[in-house]
Design a protein that fits this description.
about 250 residues, alpha/beta, TIM Barrel, 8-stranded parallel β-barrel, binds 1,3-dihydroxyacetonephosphate, EC 5.3.1.1, Triosephosphate_isomerase, gluconeogenesis
Length: about 250
């Protein structure tokens, strides 16, 4: 039985003061984590204040990215070791914006997945699909190869803990959500790839999320799909009310 996972990715938005206020506003209003786990991924600048403000609230505090080395001469990078020390438990890895603007390759993403596990962080691995890929014949192999490459040398014990998000970049920030069938198809493909790599038992445990213009109007359709265990929302996670609507969706 997979526990639904509702996550927000704030990207490079809000301020430290706004982040803290957001956590104050949602405190006590989140679902029981036995029924739905909730998570916000934020800038590393905010994370320490957020962990402190969060206290024993069930909200999971995640980074949006981390580097693949623990420490060293890597100016400007975010250490996964320091994230763990700070009380952060999860990190997004391989978001399409990292792939597009920061040239992250599958190889870098795989190294980051290992760095996350080495530092006891749960990776939320994003799998992209551009519109040109969607329209081309190799789109299935593109999704399969991103998952396969991200998981190179990842053990079955580690693999069962990962969270994977299908986030077609043509649906991100565009207001154009994938239809529930398109979203299910992408998430199904990811689960099948994990089954091919690690077997059905592990594939059945891994949470697969959909992300791309999710809001409280389309969440119903998306979350009712068999292979979609939750959402990774950008814009709709920036306001406490709309995040709470998504977080509590399954309790209604
Ligand atoms: O990129 C996303 C989450 O990681 C999705 O962003 P939007 O929900 O704003 O489209």
């Amino acid at each position: 039985m997979r526990i639904p996972f509702v996550a927000g990715n704030w990207k490079m938005n809000l301020s430290v003061a706004e982040a803290v206020k957001f956590l104050q506003e949602i405190k006590g209003k989140l679902p029981d984590p036995k029924t739905t786990e909730t998570c916000i991924a934020a800038s590393p600048l905010f994370l320490e204040s957020m962990v402190q403000e969060n206290g024993d609230s069930p909200l999971i505090i995640s980074a949006e990215n981390c580097f693949y080395e623990d420490e060293g001469a890597y100016t400007g990078e975010t250490s996964p070791k320091a994230l763990y020390e700070m009380g952060v438990t999860h990190t997004i890895i391989g978001h399409s914006e990292r792939r597009k603007y920061f040239n992250e390759t599958d190889d870098i993403i795989n190294k980051k997945v290992h760095a996350a596990f080495r530092n006891k962080l749960t990776p939320i691995i994003c799998c992209d699909e551009t519109m040109s890929r969607r329209e081309s014949a190799d789109r299935i192999s593109w999704v399969v190869s991103q998952v396969t490459n991200a998981l190179q040398s990842v053990t079955p014990e580690q693999a069962e803990k990962i969270i994977v998000a299908y986030e077609p970049s043509w649906a991100i920030g565009s207001g154009k959500t994938a239809s529930s069938d398109e979203a299910e198809e992408g998430c199904y493909l990811i689960r099948q790839t994990i089954a091919d790599l690690y077997g059905d038992d592990i594939a059945d445990q891994v949470r697969v999320l959909y992300g791309g213009s999710v809001n409280d109007e389309n969440a119903d359709d998306i979350l009712s799909q068999t292979d979609i265990d939750g959402v990774l929302a950008g814009g709709a996670s920036l306001k406490p009310d709309s995040f709470l609507n998504l977080a509590n969706f399954l309790q209604k």
